Amino acid sequence: MPILDKRTLDFVSHSPEQTIRFGVRLGERLQSGDLLCLNGELGAGKTTFVTGLAQGWGALDPVTSPTFVIVNEYRRADGLRLRHLDCYRLNSGNDALALGLDDLLDDTAPMVVEWPERILEALPPERLNLTLKWMDDTKRNLRLEARGARYEQLLNEFRHAAFSGG
């Protein structure tokens, strides 16, 4: 687990189950208003990671890829929702804004954005970026990059929980 600096963490997941466990550890730490941007090609493991993230956050609903519906919401028992936005079919930040991105980026729910590079100009600069890269049929390289004080804190908490047994 190379720690490139206090804002970056790089590690290899050796199975889909391990990718889910990493997602669970991060999901347990998500707060309303948090923004997580997922980068990676088709098949890189984004939906697998979000499955764990939603479990750790406490979602009652199963995770599905929102490619065709653009936004999924996963409910929690306390009524809060985790938003999951897929920008694969969007062409620009203007497309996202026309769909109500500003309303989705409020402080009442954490949000996960897949294919954020397609709407980058519409996203706030402070966020946690996760890049997933396919290595082989089971292994994925995952790199977390924190942008902003809240996300440096989140990354530090995740690092401790995932790699120090906390």
Stretches where pLDDT falls below 50 for ≥5 residues?
A: none
Largest β sheet strand count, sense and barrel closure = 7 strands, mixed
Helix share bin: 25-40%
Number of strands: 7
CATH class: Alpha Beta
In CATH, what is the homologous superfamily?
A: P-loop containing nucleotide triphosphate hydrolases
Number of helices: 5
Structural write-up:
The chain has one domain: P-loop containing nucleotide triphosphate hydrolases (Rossmann fold, 3-Layer(aba) Sandwich). It is α/β, with parallel strands linked by helices and 166 residues long. The longest helix is centred in the C-terminal third of the chain and has 15 residues, at 149-163. It has a seven-stranded mixed β-sheet with strand order 1-7-6-2-5-4-3. It is built from five helices and seven strands, in the order E-H-E-H-E-E-H-H-E-E-E-H. Helix 1 crosses helix 2 (46-57). Strand 3 (71-75) and strand 4 form a beta hairpin.
Main features:
166 residues; alpha/beta; Rossmann fold
Strand and helix layout:
Layout: E1 8-13, H1 16-27, E2 35-39, H2 46-57, E3 71-75, E4 81-86, H3 93-98, H4 101-104, E5 111-114, E6 127-134, E7 140-147, H5 149-163
Parallel strand pairs: 2-5, 2-6, 4-5
Antiparallel strand pairs: 1-7, 3-4, 6-7
